[in-house]
Amino acid sequence: MRTLRIALILLLALVAMQVLGLMSVAQGPAGTWVSGIQIQNQSSSPATVTITFYWAQNSATPGAVAYTIGPVTIEGNKSVVYYLPGIADFPDNFVGSAVVSSDQPVAAILNTSKVAAGTESDPKRIGAASGVLSPATTVYAPYLRKNYSGRNSYIAVQNTSAESATVTITYRDNTGAEVAAARETATLSAYSTKIFYQNENAGLPNGFYGSAVINGTQPLAVVVNNANDGTRWDRSQFESYNGLTQSSTKLWIPKITANYSGYNTGLTIQNVGTAAATMELVSTFGNLTSPLIQPGAAWAVYLPSAFPSASGGGSATVTSSQPMVGVVTENKQ
Questions:
Q1: Nearest partner of 139 among 211, 190, 189, judged by Cα
Q2: Three-state DSSP class for 159?
Q3: Which helix (H) or strand (E) holds 220?
Q4: Is the peptide bond before 71 cis (omega within 30 degrees of 0)?
Q5: What is the C-alpha to C-alpha distance for residues 114 and 331, in angstroms, rounded to an integer?
Q6: Collapsing DSSP states into helix, strand and coil, what is residue 86?
Q7: Inter-CA distances, 293 with 128, 140, 145, 279, Å
Q8: Residue 11 pLDDT exceeds 60
Q9: Can you tell me whether residue 255 is helix, strand or coil?
Q10: Under a CB-based contact definition with an 8 Å cutoff, are residues 251 and 244 in contact?
């Protein structure tokens, strides 16, 4: 049986009046947010698929089944989309997680988007993450913010086991120092999700940008979202990425941009090894060497600042004597 875990906030709002109710549960970016799941059958044989939704940890019934889709059949090499607002009896104000199970290999993506007019003052926003095939007891989040240039992040952590899990999040700032006062610990019910909002963590200073290591006593699936306030089109960035578990001493970055029709790339590379290390960036625009990066800490490079005269697209590699994970972002501002 093939199982995917989706640990991103899933929201259903039937009418605009429910926005405040949603936001009282999830203190993320303001607005009404909805989700869709697309599942692809990767085999040539029909797949029997079930999607089970679980209430989040801070709900009245953490870990309880909120809704089930299926079993349904997905034909070989085809995909289906489930848009939650289009499911008439899906529970209102849902915040939680999902598990996709199949008797054939499948892949899934989750889109979370803001209901908006699509105007300059009310821009549409969307982020996407992948279903998690291999949960882990240690997961890395290189790119986190608290009130940093108007940006905040939050981490959705799902317990993927049938037993309760203790989760600990350890933060490091941009210098590599652990922010001990910000450490968070929580107990998650079986299959439940808890969302950790960096702007609500009193131990993190305003202007924080850094990284985290998420540890669990059971295997975890993790998704991180970064967003600004979305009050106008040039403040409408909404970035999702999966928590990272696979590392290497060399990372390949096939697409980067700098000052290219308003698009720019940022790189955040986290040292997940056991010793401090320097990192070497070799790119189309030039080369850089990082300062000494402590274990668990991350090196952030914003290409227009690192290479002010660069313009266009290219590629890059990053090497280090210690294993690394990385996140690449591209925005238009």
A1: 211
A2: strand
A3: strand 208-227
A4: yes
A5: 17
A6: helix
A7: 29, 15, 18, 8
A8: no
A9: strand
A10: no
Residue 311, phi-psi category: left (phi > 0), alpha (psi -120 to 50), beta (remainder): beta
Q: How confident is the model at residue 1 (pLDDT cuts 50, 70, 90)?
A: low
CA angle (34 as vertex; 135, 79 as ends), nearest 5: 60
Q: Euclidean distance between the first and final Cα of the chain, in Å?
A: 44
In the three-class reduction of DSSP (H, G, I as helix; E, B as strand; rest coil), residue 172 is classed as strand
DSSP conformational letter for 181 = G
- d(CA 105, CA 103) in angstroms, rounded, equals 7
- State mean pLDDT over 30-53: 89
Distances, alpha carbon 119 to alpha carbons 85, 178, 231, in Å: 22, 41, 11
CATH topology for the 136-242 domain:
Hypothetical Protein Tm1070; Chain: A (2.60.290)
pTM score: 0.86
Structure tokens at 323: 């294993």
Quote the DSSP letter at residue 8.
S
Q: Where in the chain is the domain with CATH 2.60.290.11?
A: 2-130, 136-242, 248-332
Query: How many angstroms separate the CA atoms of 255 and 18, rounded?
Result: 40
In CATH, 248-332 is 2.60.290.11: yes
Q: Tokens for 63, please give them.
A: 């870990």
CA distance linking residue 333 with residue 217, whole number of Å: 41
| Domain 2-130: assigned CATH number | 2.60.290.11
Tokens read off for 182: 């910000």
The residue-averaged pLDDT of 158-185 equals 94
- Reference 4, options 224, 160, 194, 141; nearest CA is 160
Q: Are 286 and 307 in contact (CB under 8 A)?
A: yes
Q: Token pair for residue 127?
A: 């982020």
